[in-house]
């Protein structure tokens, strides 16, 4: 019988784990760091989704962590966020093999895996008799919180920046290209519990562009309506959300598909720093349904 080495992380240990352990590898740990911080915030606010955060309680210093985000829509995969401090990859492999906390039958999505851990995750999926498929390679862009807080921008006379509301969710979701792995409840929680801002027309109140601080605590869901592109609204809303994150003490960060040259250029123009390696998203599939 396998021995479960992971325990659920209590809130009392969260601050030490994030600030004293993970931050030794800053900004490489930024995705796991804010996933954990956001999870405790959302859990305290009765989010529609549920989080489970696990660590090795008798060896906190190695930074080994698994976070599982489950959504109320059963047809959507669990999101799994994994991390271990550099040099502890072998212990992470043993933990991933032995833990019973991951529901492999739900075909989880491993989100933004540190590249040095990608092969471990893919091998483990195969050992479970399943297939791994690369969903995307993400480029991490980030900015120190104090830099973000000092950003400034001008708002054109014909638009204004306003808060998103739950009334906007259906429209936003209809234009979201990642609705295959992210359900509408993600937007519901994001709009209610995190930062969500839009560029609105002063003429008729129409929502023209928007961005949010999503379930992993980073900037997500940036969209400009097709008819309003090339007018600077994408940069404007990124600046607005980035500044609010900085003012709240959060180092803004975003995970951008490496093929999305428009967004990569926009974030560079705003002042985001590019991380050195890509962070793969890997989905689990049944062997008989997986493609080549």
Give a written overview of the molecule:
The chain has two domains: 6-137 and 278-285, Aminopeptidase, CATH 3.40.630; 145-251, Aminopeptidase. It has nine helices and 13 strands. The protein has helices spanning 11-21, 30-44, 89-98, 118-127, 145-149, 169-174, 184-193, 233-247, 261-270; strands at 7-8, 50-55, 65-70, 79-83, 109-110, 131-142, 159-163, 196-201, 207-213, 219-224, 253-257, 273-274, 279-285. Helix 8 packs across helix 9. It is globular. InterPro entries: Acyl-CoA_N-acyltransferase, Acyl_CoA_acyltransferase, DUF5645, GCN5-like_dom, GNAT_dom. It comes from Aphis glycines (Soybean aphid). This is N-acetyltransferase domain-containing protein. GO terms for molecular function: acyltransferase activity, transferring groups other than amino-acyl groups.
Brief summary of the model shown:
InterPro entries: Acyl-CoA_N-acyltransferase (IPR053225), Acyl_CoA_acyltransferase (IPR016181), DUF5645 (IPR041506), GCN5-like_dom (IPR013653), GNAT_dom (IPR000182). Residues 159-292 form the N-acetyltransferase domain. The protein has helices at 11-21, 30-44, 89-98, 118-127, 145-149, 169-174, 184-193, 233-247, 261-270, and strands spanning 7-8, 50-55, 65-70, 79-83, 109-110, 131-142, 159-163, 196-201, 207-213, 219-224, 253-257, 273-274, 279-285.
